[in-house]
Design a protein that fits this description.
Layout (H helix, E strand, L loop, with lengths): L1 H22 L15 H12 L3 H15 L6 E4 L5 E7 L9 E5 L9 E8 L3 E5 L3 E3 L6 E4 L5 E6 L9 E5 L5 E3 L13 H5 L9
Parallel strand pairs: 1-8, 5-9
Antiparallel strand pairs: 2-3, 2-4, 4-7, 5-6, 7-10, 8-9
Length: 205
C-alpha cells in the first residue's frame, strides 16, 4: 500500500508541476520528470515521509522540485576558486559499477555523458546552502551524495577574513553527507590544499 501511495504521489507531483509550467507560460523541457522512477528519487520520497523538522522538510521539498524538473543527468558546475573532487561513472556503465574519482578545475562543468554520484568534502571543509543550512567541517574526508538528475553549482562561501578555512556554498540543499557511499569504493584522503595541486582529470561538458 505504501508503494502505491508513493507512486500516486509521484504522479500527482509530476502533473502539478506540468500544470504550473503551463500556468506560468514556461516552455516545458522535453525530458523533465525522467528521474521520478529513479532509486535516488525513491530514497528522497522516503526521507520526505520521515521528515519532522520544518526546515529539513522544506530542503527536501526543494530537492524534490529540482529533480522532478530536471531533464539531464546529474551534473556539477565548479564556480569556486578551488579544485573539486567528484565521483562519477560513464552513462553506459552498469549501476553496480563503482564510481571513479575525478578532479574538476574552477570554471568547469562535469560532462553530462557521466552520471555524477557524489562530491568529495575534504577534511576541514564546510558545506553551506541557502540562509541557514550547513554541514560543519569535520576532521576526516566525507562525501556529499548527489541525486540522479540533480544540477548542482558550487561557489566559495564566505569565511573569516584572514582565515585559511574553506567552505563550499551549494546551490541546492545537501541530501546527505557521510563517511561513505555504497557506489564509491574509497574516499581519497586529500585535504583542500593537496586537492588544489592535482591536475584536472574530470571529463568536461
Amino acid at each position: 500500500m505504501s508503494s502505491l501511495l508513493q507512486r500516486l504521489r509521484q504522479v500527482v507531483f509530476a502533473v502539478l508541476l506540468g500544470l504550473c509550467g503551463l500556468f506560468w507560460a514556461v516552455p516545458a523541457q522535453a525530458d523533465a520528470g525522467a528521474f521520478l522512477t529513479s532509486q535516488s528519487y525513491a530514497d528522497l520520497q522516503a526521507s520526505l515521509e520521515q521528515a519532522r523538522d520544518p526546515q529539513r522538510l522544506a530542503e527536501l521539498q526543494q530537492l524534490e522540485q529540482a529533480i522532478a524538473s530536471s531533464d539531464d543527468r546529474a551534473q556539477l558546475s565548479n564556480q569556486t576558486t578551488h579544485n573539486l573532487g567528484v565521483f562519477a561513472r560513464y552513462k553506459k556503465d552498469p549501476a553496480d559499477v563503482a564510481a571513479r574519482f575525478y578532479v574538476l578545475a574552477p570554471g568547469h562543468d562535469t560532462d553530462d555523458d557521466y552520471e555524477l554520484i557524489g562530491l568529495l568534502v575534504p577534511p576541514q571543509v564546510a558545506l553551506r546552502w541557502e540562509d541557514s543550512g550547513e554541514s560543519p567541517a569535520a576532521p576526516s574526508p566525507r562525501v556529499l551524495r548527489i541525486l540522479e538528475g540533480e544540477q548542482l553549482a558550487l561557489t566559495d562561501a564566505a569565511v573569516e577574513p584572514g582565515s585559511d578555512a574553506v567552505a563550499y556554498q551549494l546551490s541546492l540543499p545537501a541530501y546527505s553527507v557521510g563517511s561513505s557511499l555504497a557506489s564509491i569504493a574509497e574516499l581519497p584522503g586529500l585535504n583542500q590544499s593537496q586537492l588544489d595541486q592535482e591536475l584536472e582529470t574530470a571529463p568536461l561538458d
